[in-house]
Batch of 3 targets.
Target 1
Amino acid sequence: MASDASLPRRSATSFRNRTLLKFLYLLPVAFAAVIVADLAYNRVTHKPPPVRHLAGKPFASVPIAGLTANLFAQGETLRASGNDVFLEFRDAAGHLADVGDVSLILTLNMPDMVMHSMGRVMPTATPGQYRTTLEPQMAGTWTAKISFTNSKTNGEATLPVAVK
């Protein structure tokens, strides 16, 4: 019979290393399982997209086809570079009104030249609120043209907008 001295002995260090290696292999699998479980839970519970509540006062408002269009930005005016602009349309009772397809175009008339700044206006998760990004690239008093089109009606309005 062989003695215990002839059998290879496993050290505690190699056992610890193998355990750590197994843990490191299982960690990405566990992480992926948590992500998939979270996505499945959100899908099954039918969570709606987040609703953005606009705080503060609008930097500009204009009546348009029986509604009021309010424009919000990060300050009281637009900046010459990168502006996230939120538009909302409210009826006479102050309720949000979904108006369909919206466009917002800024125009600056100068001698021998006209500059335009426009962004793609996208609806948000809240009906009646829209978002776009504008980059006028020059300070001055621009003319904003807001228009909307839907199956029932169309509307268009212009207003002066200060860009600093």
Target 2
Amino acid sequence: MAYSLTTVNIISSFLILVLGWFLATIFSNILKKVIKNIGLNKAFEKHLKFTLEHNLSSIVKYALIAVAFVLALRRLGIPARVFYWTLGVIIVLTLIFTLLALKDLIPNFLSWIYITKTQKIKRGDTFSVKGVQGNVLRVNVLETKVRTEKGEIIFIPNTLVRKTLKKQ
């Protein structure tokens, strides 16, 4: 029974992907254990907010899977630039979604800088915004924590606090 060249290419591409994923997972796990045994996490834990062991092994794993994907595309006769364009589009979309997620973070952070530099409100001050009055408990990087007269704790975004301060 003879198979067509297309069938052989599809099956071999699939096997390249499966083997690439399998080898990438094994290599990633080995790298995790090596990093753990060397003690790199402990050496960098004061400077990094993430575990080097997990993140570095994940990067290596996905890089190896990407190489397997390019090899599988080549086996199918699809140029690697299709992969690169697709990867570029994914990166651009990721950046756009990340910036959209940060759209509130940056103005609140800048407002926090304004609030702390001008010191127009501090802990213990009575503050009123949009009809809600209370004592300032804390000014955080993103919001200001206020206790109302009824004893409720509310969080007011720093951009709203800054706008209220500028009106006064």
Target 3
Amino acid sequence: MTFSTKYNTINDENINEMVKAFYTKVLEEDNSVSKVFKDKLGDDINSELWQEHIETLTKFWAMIALQDDAYKGSPLAPHFALPLKKEMFGEWLMMFFVLIDSMYEEKQATLFKTRAEDIAKNFMRVLDL
């Protein structure tokens, strides 16, 4: 996915665009990360399950990037029931970084990438991976 102009600010609209673009890309892939998402949520990004996930993740990243308080939940809890492996976090980060670098200017991209790495490290630690 290529964006003609990179964002130099972060707001709710481009966070939602980022989340939709990222998970659209995940569904196009044939790897262990996409398999987990397809098994859990299906392969139709327009389904009710996916739309709920996109809304939740939009709120989550708005909390991270904008200190928005709309996200209510535990980001780690849903991951305990998934068949996750350490290498999947590397795959997820690689896909995420490519998208973030294509959408945002360096300063904004760095914020997302740094937080994503921190989150992945924490998840792997807590999940004992």
